[in-house]
Design a protein that fits this description.
By secondary structure, this protein is an alpha/beta fold. About 50% of the residues lie in helices and about 10% in strands. It binds one RNA strand through helix 3, helix 4, helix 8 and helix 12.
Length: about 300
RNA sequence: GGUCGGUUAACCGAGUGGCUAGGUAGCGGUCUGCAAAACCGUUUACGGCGGUUCGAAUCCGCCACCGACCU
């Protein structure tokens, strides 16, 4: 019997969590969360982690298993998921992965090139270089070390340039030489389900959900994480806006308004990411029966 | 009824005769390691009708609407 990974994806607020519970119950499988912020145990309200009831009903993996100070990446996620899957498949040939982090999902589904780990000090060096000398000096360095990538990158995006530079230095060869971009074969079948709603409904849901998070104490949660505000994990919608409020830069109302806006934009970016993936079969979250039917058919076929 | 001020894109808002202000929201996109990140692109509007002018958002007249004050 072949192993199957059902992937349930969709923009933030579309309704993935509830459906993932339905599907996991129906197919008697466990859930792998592919949400780059739900990984962190200190971030609960702002990342809309499943309820305790949901977590108790279905076995979840990769939820709140790291601390905000920990380093984690899509590559580590690929490794960890591929390590976990055989264990899940030994119990049942179906597993369900759900989430909204496009790059993490792609890493599991299609693989990601092997690129050496970077010494944090090297990274620090280039970050300082950027801060002190500006992006122009980064460009100049990249042009020298990796002209091929230089001709392709977005030269205004300092993050991309820094990444390339730190790899060049660590490996002693151009970053672009690592970018094979070959899809990896997987020993399981993927069934990729996308959830979509019309834009207006989605945005209304996002706005309402933010209000609910606020009622549930998002401000308090953010306040507790204030000391960690410079960590990458906290450079997240729902937290950084509150940090600005704590710093007196904006009003509380403004912070909440910005959380809504930034969540909407995030959702749009997610949609854009998936737009070009022809493997995704899209459904309305209202049509759970159709999704189940589609999965059942795919499993048989 | 009168006097004055105002009416600019979804919103805010600058612009006094020719040269697409700007901002925000929205929309579209990029993407191989902290990705809920970072970055890029984008909407040619001047309340209505006439007039002056080679040319009007800009000047003139009338009308409509909004606001303030007067009666």
């Amino acid at each position: 019997m072949k192993n199957i990974l059902i992937v349930l994806l969709g923009p933030t607020g579309v309704g993935k969590t509830d459906i993932s519970i339905d599907l996991a119950t129906r197919f008697n499988c466990e859930i792998i969360s592919a949400d780059s912020r739900q990984f962190f145990r200190e971030m609960r309200i702002g990342t809309a982690v499943p309820t305790d009831l949901q977590l108790n009903t279905i076995n979840h993996h990769f939820i709140q298993f790291r601390q905000v100070k920990d380093y984690y990446s899509s590559s580590l996620f690929e490794r960890d998921v591929l390590e976990l899957l055989p264990k899940l498949f030994s119990k049942n040939n179906i597993a369900l992965m759900t989430g909204g982090s496009g790059m993490y999902i792609d890493a599991v589904c299609y693989g990601i090139d092997d690129i050496p780990d970077v010494d944090p000090l090297v990274r620090e060096k280039y970050i300082s270089k950027y801060k002190e000398e500006g992006i122009e000096s980064l460009r100049a360095a990249l042009k020298l070390l990796d002209p091929e990538y230089y001709s392709k990158v977005d030269l205004k995006n300092y993050k991309r340039i820094i990444r390339a530079l730190e790899i060049c230095e660590t490996a002693g060869r151009p970053y672009s030489s690592f970018l094979i971009k070959q899809k990896r074969e997987r020993d399981f079948t993927k069934i990729i389900i996308g959830l979509e709603r019309n834009r207006e409904d989605l945005y209304n849901r996002i706005n309402l959900r933010v209000d609910e998070m606020v009622k549930s104490g998002l401000e308090q949660e953010a306040l507790q994480l204030y000391d960690f505000r410079n960590l990458n994990a906290l450079n997240s919608v729902g937290y950084r806006e509150y940090f600005d409020f704590f710093d007196g830069l904006i009003s509380r109302e403004k912070a909440i308004e910005l959380i809504k806006r930034n969540s909407r934009r995030y959702a749009k970016r997610q949609i854009t990411w998936w737009n070009k993936n022809q493997e995704i079969k899209w459904f309305s979250p209202e049509k759970v029966e159709e999704i189940i039917e589609y999965i059942s058919e795919s499993i048989k076929g």
